Amino acid sequence: MGLAIALIHFPVRNRLGRVVNTAITNFDIHDLARAARTYGLERYYIVAPVASQRDFVRRVMAHWSEGPGAEMNITRKEALQLVRLVRDINEVHDNLAEETGRTPIFVATSARPLPNSISYAELRRRIETQPQNEFCVLFGTGYGLDDAVTSEVDLMLAPVRGPTDWNHLSVRSAASVILDRLRGNRDDLQP
Amino acid sequence: MGLAIALIHFPVRNRLGRVVNTAITNFDIHDLARAARTYGLERYYIVAPVASQRDFVRRVMAHWSEGPGAEMNITRKEALQLVRLVRDINEVHDNLAEETGRTPIFVATSARPLPNSISYAELRRRIETQPQNEFCVLFGTGYGLDDAVTSEVDLMLAPVRGPTDWNHLSVRSAASVILDRLRGNRDDLQP
Protein backbone atom coordinates (compact mmCIF):
# COMPACT_ATOMS: atom_id res chain seq x y z
CA MET A 1 0.00 0.00 0.00
CA GLY A 2 1.73 3.11 -1.26
CA LEU A 3 0.69 5.75 1.27
CA ALA A 4 2.44 7.34 4.24
CA ILE A 5 1.91 10.55 6.20
CA ALA A 6 4.28 13.08 7.76
CA LEU A 7 3.54 15.70 10.40
CA ILE A 8 5.82 18.71 9.94
CA HIS A 9 6.95 20.86 12.89
CA PHE A 10 9.43 22.86 10.79
CA PRO A 11 9.28 24.79 8.53
CA VAL A 12 5.72 25.92 9.26
CA ARG A 13 4.14 29.33 9.72
CA ASN A 14 2.82 30.94 12.88
CA ARG A 15 -0.25 33.18 12.99
CA LEU A 16 1.82 36.17 11.90
CA GLY A 17 3.09 34.31 8.85
CA ARG A 18 6.62 33.87 10.21
CA VAL A 19 8.49 30.61 9.80
CA VAL A 20 8.72 28.75 13.09
CA ASN A 21 9.42 25.40 14.68
CA THR A 22 6.31 24.34 16.61
CA ALA A 23 6.07 22.38 19.84
CA ILE A 24 5.17 18.71 19.76
CA THR A 25 1.54 18.07 20.75
CA ASN A 26 0.95 14.78 22.54
CA PHE A 27 -2.49 14.35 20.99
CA ASP A 28 -1.01 14.69 17.49
CA ILE A 29 1.23 11.70 18.15
CA HIS A 30 -1.63 9.44 19.20
CA ASP A 31 -4.48 10.65 17.02
CA LEU A 32 -2.51 10.52 13.76
CA ALA A 33 -0.95 7.16 14.66
CA ARG A 34 -4.42 5.72 15.31
CA ALA A 35 -5.75 7.16 12.06
CA ALA A 36 -2.74 5.87 10.12
CA ARG A 37 -3.27 2.40 11.55
CA THR A 38 -7.01 2.46 10.91
CA TYR A 39 -6.44 3.38 7.27
CA GLY A 40 -3.84 0.67 6.72
CA LEU A 41 -0.71 2.84 6.52
CA GLU A 42 2.67 1.45 7.52
CA ARG A 43 4.53 4.67 8.30
CA TYR A 44 3.73 7.91 10.13
CA TYR A 45 6.69 10.28 10.13
CA ILE A 46 7.01 12.93 12.82
CA VAL A 47 9.34 15.57 11.39
CA ALA A 48 11.05 17.58 14.15
CA PRO A 49 14.55 19.01 13.71
CA VAL A 50 15.12 19.71 17.42
CA ALA A 51 16.66 16.74 19.25
CA SER A 52 14.90 17.43 22.56
CA GLN A 53 11.55 17.31 20.73
CA ARG A 54 12.35 13.94 19.26
CA ASP A 55 13.40 12.79 22.75
CA PHE A 56 10.00 13.84 24.08
CA VAL A 57 8.23 11.75 21.44
CA ARG A 58 10.51 8.80 22.27
CA ARG A 59 9.54 9.04 25.94
CA VAL A 60 5.84 9.07 25.08
CA MET A 61 6.30 6.09 22.79
CA ALA A 62 8.34 4.17 25.38
CA HIS A 63 5.63 4.67 28.00
CA TRP A 64 2.99 3.10 25.78
CA SER A 65 5.21 0.52 24.10
CA GLU A 66 7.27 -0.88 26.97
CA GLY A 67 6.23 1.00 30.08
CA PRO A 68 3.06 0.82 32.20
CA GLY A 69 0.93 1.92 29.26
CA ALA A 70 1.74 -1.14 27.14
CA GLU A 71 -0.41 -3.43 29.26
CA MET A 72 -3.10 -0.86 29.91
CA ASN A 73 -3.75 0.08 26.31
CA ILE A 74 -2.73 -2.39 23.64
CA THR A 75 -4.23 -0.45 20.72
CA ARG A 76 -2.16 2.59 21.60
CA LYS A 77 0.97 0.46 21.40
CA GLU A 78 -0.10 -1.00 18.07
CA ALA A 79 -0.73 2.43 16.61
CA LEU A 80 2.54 3.94 17.84
CA GLN A 81 4.51 1.21 16.10
CA LEU A 82 3.97 3.16 12.87
CA VAL A 83 5.73 6.29 14.14
CA ARG A 84 9.10 7.20 12.62
CA LEU A 85 11.02 10.10 14.11
CA VAL A 86 13.03 12.11 11.60
CA ARG A 87 14.81 15.46 11.35
CA ASP A 88 13.54 16.72 8.01
CA ILE A 89 11.67 15.84 4.84
CA ASN A 90 14.84 14.66 3.12
CA GLU A 91 15.09 11.97 5.74
CA VAL A 92 11.48 10.97 5.04
CA HIS A 93 12.37 10.71 1.36
CA ASP A 94 15.43 8.54 1.92
CA ASN A 95 13.71 6.26 4.42
CA LEU A 96 10.68 5.75 2.17
CA ALA A 97 12.81 5.10 -0.92
CA GLU A 98 15.04 2.65 0.90
CA GLU A 99 12.35 0.69 2.70
CA THR A 100 9.72 0.53 -0.01
CA GLY A 101 11.89 0.52 -3.12
CA ARG A 102 9.40 2.95 -4.63
CA THR A 103 9.69 6.55 -5.78
CA PRO A 104 8.45 8.89 -3.03
CA ILE A 105 5.84 11.39 -4.23
CA PHE A 106 5.26 14.22 -1.76
CA VAL A 107 1.78 15.70 -1.47
CA ALA A 108 1.30 18.91 0.53
CA THR A 109 -1.95 19.85 2.26
CA SER A 110 -3.30 23.32 2.87
CA ALA A 111 -6.49 24.88 4.21
CA ARG A 112 -6.25 27.51 1.46
CA PRO A 113 -7.10 26.72 -2.14
CA LEU A 114 -3.93 26.73 -4.24
CA PRO A 115 -3.51 26.50 -8.00
CA ASN A 116 -2.93 23.10 -9.59
CA SER A 117 -4.18 21.16 -6.63
CA ILE A 118 -5.23 17.55 -7.12
CA SER A 119 -8.64 16.21 -6.06
CA TYR A 120 -9.16 13.47 -3.46
CA ALA A 121 -10.61 11.13 -6.06
CA GLU A 122 -7.62 11.62 -8.34
CA LEU A 123 -5.05 11.08 -5.60
CA ARG A 124 -6.93 7.99 -4.42
CA ARG A 125 -6.86 6.66 -7.97
CA ARG A 126 -3.13 7.25 -8.29
CA ILE A 127 -2.38 5.55 -4.97
CA GLU A 128 -4.36 2.52 -6.09
CA THR A 129 -2.94 2.34 -9.62
CA GLN A 130 0.71 3.42 -9.33
CA PRO A 131 2.52 0.68 -7.42
CA GLN A 132 5.88 2.15 -8.44
CA ASN A 133 5.18 5.25 -6.31
CA GLU A 134 4.99 5.73 -2.56
CA PHE A 135 2.80 8.75 -1.79
CA CYS A 136 3.50 10.75 1.35
CA VAL A 137 0.95 13.33 2.48
CA LEU A 138 2.47 16.21 4.46
CA PHE A 139 0.53 17.97 7.23
CA GLY A 140 1.70 21.26 8.71
CA THR A 141 1.34 22.10 12.38
CA GLY A 142 0.88 25.72 13.51
CA TYR A 143 -0.69 27.78 10.72
CA GLY A 144 0.40 25.43 7.97
CA LEU A 145 3.32 24.40 5.81
CA ASP A 146 5.78 27.08 4.77
CA ASP A 147 6.21 27.93 1.08
CA ALA A 148 9.65 26.32 1.27
CA VAL A 149 7.78 23.03 1.53
CA THR A 150 4.79 23.64 -0.75
CA SER A 151 7.02 24.98 -3.55
CA GLU A 152 9.11 21.80 -3.54
CA VAL A 153 6.47 19.06 -3.35
CA ASP A 154 5.23 17.01 -6.28
CA LEU A 155 1.51 17.60 -5.68
CA MET A 156 -0.85 19.87 -3.73
CA LEU A 157 -4.03 18.36 -2.33
CA ALA A 158 -7.25 20.39 -2.42
CA PRO A 159 -8.41 21.80 0.94
CA VAL A 160 -10.98 19.89 2.97
CA ARG A 161 -14.33 21.61 2.55
CA GLY A 162 -17.66 21.26 4.21
CA PRO A 163 -20.78 23.14 3.10
CA THR A 164 -19.35 26.45 4.39
CA ASP A 165 -16.38 28.72 3.67
CA TRP A 166 -15.07 28.20 7.20
CA ASN A 167 -12.49 25.39 7.28
CA HIS A 168 -10.23 25.81 10.30
CA LEU A 169 -9.95 22.17 11.30
CA SER A 170 -7.31 21.02 13.76
CA VAL A 171 -4.48 19.12 12.10
CA ARG A 172 -5.78 16.00 13.87
CA SER A 173 -9.21 16.40 12.28
CA ALA A 174 -7.86 17.35 8.85
CA ALA A 175 -5.46 14.41 8.72
CA SER A 176 -8.21 11.99 9.76
CA VAL A 177 -10.67 13.31 7.18
CA ILE A 178 -8.04 13.24 4.43
CA LEU A 179 -7.06 9.65 5.22
CA ASP A 180 -10.72 8.70 5.15
CA ARG A 181 -11.18 10.32 1.77
CA LEU A 182 -8.10 8.56 0.40
CA ARG A 183 -8.46 5.17 2.09
CA GLY A 184 -11.91 4.94 3.69
CA ASN A 185 -13.94 1.83 2.99
CA ARG A 186 -15.45 2.33 -0.45
CA ASP A 187 -18.82 0.88 0.52
CA ASP A 188 -19.04 3.36 3.36
CA LEU A 189 -18.32 6.27 1.04
CA GLN A 190 -20.70 5.40 -1.80
CA PRO A 191 -23.84 7.48 -2.00
CA MET B 1 -29.55 22.46 8.55
CA GLY B 2 -30.82 19.61 10.69
CA LEU B 3 -27.65 18.22 12.23
CA ALA B 4 -26.05 18.62 15.67
CA ILE B 5 -23.47 16.61 17.62
CA ALA B 6 -23.12 15.70 21.27
CA LEU B 7 -20.02 14.46 23.11
CA ILE B 8 -21.04 12.20 26.00
CA HIS B 9 -18.96 11.94 29.19
CA PHE B 10 -21.59 9.86 31.03
CA PRO B 11 -22.76 7.14 30.74
CA VAL B 12 -19.80 5.66 28.86
CA ARG B 13 -17.68 2.57 29.42
CA ASN B 14 -14.10 2.29 30.58
CA ARG B 15 -11.64 -0.32 29.30
CA LEU B 16 -13.02 -2.89 31.72
CA GLY B 17 -16.55 -2.37 30.45
CA ARG B 18 -17.72 -0.54 33.58
CA VAL B 19 -19.94 2.52 33.34
CA VAL B 20 -18.00 5.66 34.20
CA ASN B 21 -18.01 9.42 33.95
CA THR B 22 -14.91 10.46 31.98
CA ALA B 23 -12.77 13.55 32.41
CA ILE B 24 -13.14 16.48 30.03
CA THR B 25 -10.36 16.61 27.43
CA ASN B 26 -9.43 20.12 26.32
CA PHE B 27 -8.63 18.97 22.78
CA ASP B 28 -12.11 17.45 22.46
CA ILE B 29 -13.66 20.84 23.11
CA HIS B 30 -11.68 22.60 20.39
CA ASP B 31 -11.35 19.89 17.77
CA LEU B 32 -15.04 19.00 17.71
CA ALA B 33 -16.09 22.66 17.80
CA ARG B 34 -13.86 23.38 14.79
CA ALA B 35 -15.20 20.36 12.94
CA ALA B 36 -18.80 21.30 13.77
CA ARG B 37 -18.22 24.81 12.44
CA THR B 38 -16.43 23.59 9.31
CA TYR B 39 -19.34 21.29 8.49
CA GLY B 40 -21.97 23.98 9.01
CA LEU B 41 -23.48 22.77 12.28
CA GLU B 42 -25.07 25.21 14.70
CA ARG B 43 -24.83 23.22 17.93
CA TYR B 44 -22.18 21.08 19.61
CA TYR B 45 -23.39 19.74 22.96
CA ILE B 46 -20.91 18.75 25.64
CA VAL B 47 -22.79 16.39 27.96
CA ALA B 48 -21.24 16.30 31.43
CA PRO B 49 -23.33 15.71 34.55
CA VAL B 50 -20.67 16.91 37.01
CA ALA B 51 -20.89 20.66 37.69
CA SER B 52 -17.13 21.13 38.17
CA GLN B 53 -16.56 19.63 34.74
CA ARG B 54 -18.95 22.06 33.14
CA ASP B 55 -17.20 24.88 35.02
CA PHE B 56 -13.90 23.75 33.51
CA VAL B 57 -15.34 23.95 30.01
CA ARG B 58 -16.76 27.39 30.80
CA ARG B 59 -13.31 28.62 31.86
CA VAL B 60 -11.75 27.33 28.65
CA MET B 61 -14.48 28.98 26.61
CA ALA B 62 -14.17 32.27 28.48
CA HIS B 63 -10.44 32.38 27.85
CA TRP B 64 -10.91 32.11 24.11
CA SER B 65 -14.14 34.12 23.88
CA GLU B 66 -13.50 37.08 26.15
CA GLY B 67 -10.03 36.63 27.61
CA PRO B 68 -6.57 36.97 26.09
CA GLY B 69 -7.28 34.21 23.60
CA ALA B 70 -10.10 36.08 21.87
CA GLU B 71 -7.73 38.48 20.17
CA MET B 72 -5.03 35.92 19.57
CA ASN B 73 -7.16 33.35 17.84
CA ILE B 74 -10.41 34.50 16.26
CA THR B 75 -11.28 31.17 14.66
CA ARG B 76 -11.13 29.43 18.03
CA LYS B 77 -13.67 31.91 19.35
CA GLU B 78 -15.91 31.43 16.33
CA ALA B 79 -15.84 27.66 16.73
CA LEU B 80 -16.51 27.70 20.48
CA GLN B 81 -19.67 29.72 19.95
CA LEU B 82 -21.35 26.46 18.93
CA VAL B 83 -20.69 24.77 22.27
CA ARG B 84 -23.68 24.07 24.57
CA LEU B 85 -23.00 22.72 28.02
CA VAL B 86 -25.64 20.32 29.31
CA ARG B 87 -26.13 17.74 32.07
CA ASP B 88 -27.61 14.86 30.12
CA ILE B 89 -29.11 13.74 26.84
CA ASN B 90 -32.62 14.74 27.93
CA GLU B 91 -31.40 18.30 28.11
CA VAL B 92 -30.02 17.99 24.58
CA HIS B 93 -33.42 16.77 23.46
CA ASP B 94 -35.33 19.60 25.07
CA ASN B 95 -32.94 22.29 23.87
CA LEU B 96 -32.96 20.99 20.30
CA ALA B 97 -36.75 20.67 20.20
CA GLU B 98 -37.26 24.12 21.66
CA GLU B 99 -34.73 25.99 19.53
CA THR B 100 -35.27 24.28 16.20
CA GLY B 101 -38.97 23.39 16.43
CA ARG B 102 -38.06 20.04 14.90
CA THR B 103 -38.25 16.49 16.22
CA PRO B 104 -34.86 15.42 17.60
CA ILE B 105 -33.62 12.10 16.19
CA PHE B 106 -30.72 10.65 18.17
CA VAL B 107 -28.06 8.68 16.30
CA ALA B 108 -25.48 6.72 18.31
CA THR B 109 -22.00 5.91 17.04
CA SER B 110 -19.90 2.86 17.86
CA ALA B 111 -16.60 1.39 16.74
CA ARG B 112 -18.21 -2.06 16.85
CA PRO B 113 -20.66 -3.22 14.18
CA LEU B 114 -24.15 -3.43 15.65
CA PRO B 115 -27.34 -4.83 14.14
CA ASN B 116 -29.70 -2.48 12.31
CA SER B 117 -27.14 0.25 11.84
CA ILE B 118 -27.72 2.87 9.20
CA SER B 119 -25.18 3.71 6.48
CA TYR B 120 -23.55 7.11 6.03
CA ALA B 121 -25.19 7.62 2.67
CA GLU B 122 -28.62 6.87 4.12
CA LEU B 123 -28.20 9.18 7.11
CA ARG B 124 -26.89 11.92 4.82
CA ARG B 125 -29.95 11.49 2.62
CA ARG B 126 -32.31 11.71 5.60
CA ILE B 127 -30.62 14.84 6.93
CA GLU B 128 -31.00 16.48 3.54
CA THR B 129 -34.59 15.38 2.91
CA GLN B 130 -36.30 15.44 6.33
CA PRO B 131 -36.58 19.09 7.35
CA GLN B 132 -39.04 18.16 10.10
CA ASN B 133 -36.26 16.30 11.95
CA GLU B 134 -33.16 17.53 13.76
CA PHE B 135 -30.55 14.75 13.79
CA CYS B 136 -28.11 14.63 16.69
CA VAL B 137 -25.11 12.30 16.42
CA LEU B 138 -23.81 11.08 19.81
CA PHE B 139 -20.13 10.35 20.38
CA GLY B 140 -18.91 8.47 23.44
CA THR B 141 -15.69 9.32 25.23
CA GLY B 142 -13.69 6.60 27.02
CA TYR B 143 -14.39 3.21 25.48
CA GLY B 144 -17.70 4.24 23.99
CA LEU B 145 -21.36 4.84 24.75
CA ASP B 146 -22.99 2.64 27.36
CA ASP B 147 -25.87 0.37 26.38
CA ALA B 148 -28.17 2.63 28.38
CA VAL B 149 -27.63 5.14 25.58
CA THR B 150 -27.44 2.88 22.53
CA SER B 151 -30.60 1.01 23.54
CA GLU B 152 -32.59 4.24 23.70
CA VAL B 153 -31.51 6.05 20.54
CA ASP B 154 -33.49 6.21 17.32
CA LEU B 155 -30.67 5.08 15.02
CA MET B 156 -27.23 3.45 15.15
CA LEU B 157 -24.61 4.63 12.68
CA ALA B 158 -22.27 2.06 11.09
CA PRO B 159 -18.67 2.11 12.37
CA VAL B 160 -16.02 4.06 10.48
CA ARG B 161 -13.93 1.60 8.51
CA GLY B 162 -10.74 1.87 6.58
CA PRO B 163 -9.27 -0.98 4.52
CA THR B 164 -8.35 -2.92 7.70
CA ASP B 165 -10.15 -4.50 10.66
CA TRP B 166 -8.36 -2.14 13.05
CA ASN B 167 -10.51 0.91 13.82
CA HIS B 168 -9.46 2.45 17.11
CA LEU B 169 -9.74 6.10 16.16
CA SER B 170 -9.70 8.83 18.77
CA VAL B 171 -13.12 10.40 19.33
CA ARG B 172 -11.71 13.57 17.73
CA SER B 173 -10.79 11.69 14.57
CA ALA B 174 -13.99 9.64 14.45
CA ALA B 175 -16.23 12.69 14.89
CA SER B 176 -14.35 14.59 12.17
CA VAL B 177 -14.53 11.72 9.70
CA ILE B 178 -18.22 11.15 10.41
CA LEU B 179 -19.07 14.83 9.91
CA ASP B 180 -17.14 14.75 6.64
CA ARG B 181 -19.09 11.72 5.47
CA LEU B 182 -22.39 13.36 6.40
CA ARG B 183 -21.68 16.94 5.38
CA GLY B 184 -18.42 17.02 3.37
CA ASN B 185 -18.48 18.90 0.09
CA ARG B 186 -20.08 16.56 -2.43
CA ASP B 187 -17.66 17.45 -5.22
CA ASP B 188 -14.77 16.54 -2.96
CA LEU B 189 -16.30 13.17 -2.16
CA GLN B 190 -17.26 12.09 -5.69
CA PRO B 191 -15.00 9.46 -7.26
Explain how this protein is built:
- 2 copies of one chain form a homodimer.
- Chain A is 43% helix and 19% strand.
- The two termini of chain A are 25 Å apart.
- Chain A is an alpha/beta fold and 191 residues long.
- Chain A has a 7-stranded parallel beta sheet. Chain A has a two-stranded antiparallel ribbon with strand order 2-3.
- The relative contact order of chain A is 0.21.
- In chain A, helix 1 crosses helix 4 and helix 6 packs across helix 8.
- Chain A is built from 9 helices and 9 strands.
- In chain A, strand 2 and strand 3 form a beta hairpin.
- The first copy, chain A, is globular.
- The longest helix of chain A has 15 residues.
- At the A-B interface, helix 1, helix 4, helix 6 and helix 8 of A face helix 1, helix 4, helix 6 and helix 8 of B.
What's the oligomerization state?
homodimer
Structural class, from secondary structure content of chain A?
Answer: alpha/beta
Helix content of chain A: 40-55%
- pLDDT under 50 segments of chain A (min length 5)? none
In terms of DSSP E residues, the strand content of chain A is 15-25%
Rg value of chain A: 16 Å
Give the averaged pLDDT of chain A, no decimals. 95
| 3D shape of chain A | globular
State the separation between the terminal residues of chain A, measured CA to CA: 25 Å
Biggest chain-to-chain interface with counts: A-B, 47 and 46 residues
The major beta sheet of chain A can be summarized as: 7 strands, parallel
The DSSP helix count of chain A reads 9
Strand order within the widest sheet of chain A?
A: 5-4-1-8-6-9-7
Give the tally of β-strands of chain A: 9
Run of helices and strands of chain A: EEEHEHHHEHEEHEHEHH
